[in-house]
Amino acid sequence: MARSVAASSRAHGSQRREQDRPGRLRLWLRRRRGLARPAALGLLGLGAVAALGTGLYLADPAGRVQALVDYAAGLGEAAGLEVQQVILEGRRNTPRDLFEAALGVRRGDPLLAFSPAEARARLETIAWVEHAHVERRLPGTILVRLTERTPFAIWQHNGRFSIIDRAGNVVTSETLDAFGPLPLLVGAGAQKEGAALHDLLAAHPEVLRRVQAMVRVGERRWNLRLHNGADVLLPEGQEAPAIGRLAELHGQHALLDRPLLAIDLRLPDRLVLRQPPAPAPAQPTRQPARRSG
Q: In this structure, are 102 and 211 located in the same domain?
């Protein structure tokens, strides 16, 4: 009897300890209770800052932002953060005066008042500049890396000559002879489509070296003006097979070196050659009549 009472007491005590022991979820919450309050305060703080910033921006967006910029610049100036040097990389053809005007900063200016993003946007309006990278480096350096457009061809349009890149962007209309021999593109639309045609011709060097100009006709097809004055008429949209055919004919018959006015390749199954007009026959010279006796 005593043994059964003791066993019952131990079982009851074990059940009470199991009931008093906290569960896993309760233990997890107790352990992280100390982190919950700082996290909540941090979120409240961020919300307050965001609300304050939004309120200031809505109240006076331009003025508040400029005030912050001026304040930061003032702090930088007070700390002695001034522009001491400008490091320029990648400039080859960009005019120096245009670069300096677009950068918009000089030695001694407050470093923190300088906006790299705005300077980059101004630099990329220069015709020679394809991309610009601008950054500030403490304590007083501004680094600029330029990626310039590469001269590809001379474009003649409406009596004017310009240097263009492969995409057709005009980079300059001055000192055209400073970039060496370049392909000549003529006509409206030639600046946009000329690179593709030039690549086709480059696959046939014997044809390319005889081409003086690539002439866009009606903004839809091409003529090739040869150095000997002849014109090669290419079909619309079928330039590649026509140029291949032209190279084959030249290899077999020296076609491009003949004294012709035009070589018409617009029909795939026909070749039309235009000959120069035949010279007029020489008029016989009349002998002066002799007088008798």
A: no
Q: What is the pLDDT of residues 81-117, one digit of tens each?
A: 999 999 999 999 999 999 999 999 999 999 999 999 9
Q: What's the longest Cα–Cα distance across the chain?
A: 189
Query: How much is the pTM?
Result: 0.68
Assigned token pair, 288: 């002066």
| Closest CA relative to residue 222, chosen from 265, 253, 159 | 265
Q: How many domains does the chain have?
A: 2
The CATH number that applies at residue 220 is 3.40.50.11690
Domain termination residue (choose one: 148, 175, 203) = 148
Alpha-carbon span 222 to 266, nearest angstrom: 10
Tens digits of residue pLDDT in 186-220: 999 999 999 999 999 999 999 999 999 999 999 99
CB atoms within 10 A of CB 170: 15
Question: Exposed (0-12), middle (13-18) or buried (19+): which is 98, by Cβ within 10 Å?
Answer: middle
Please indicate, yes or no, if residue 38 is contained in any of the structural domains: no
Range of the domain at 214: 153-274
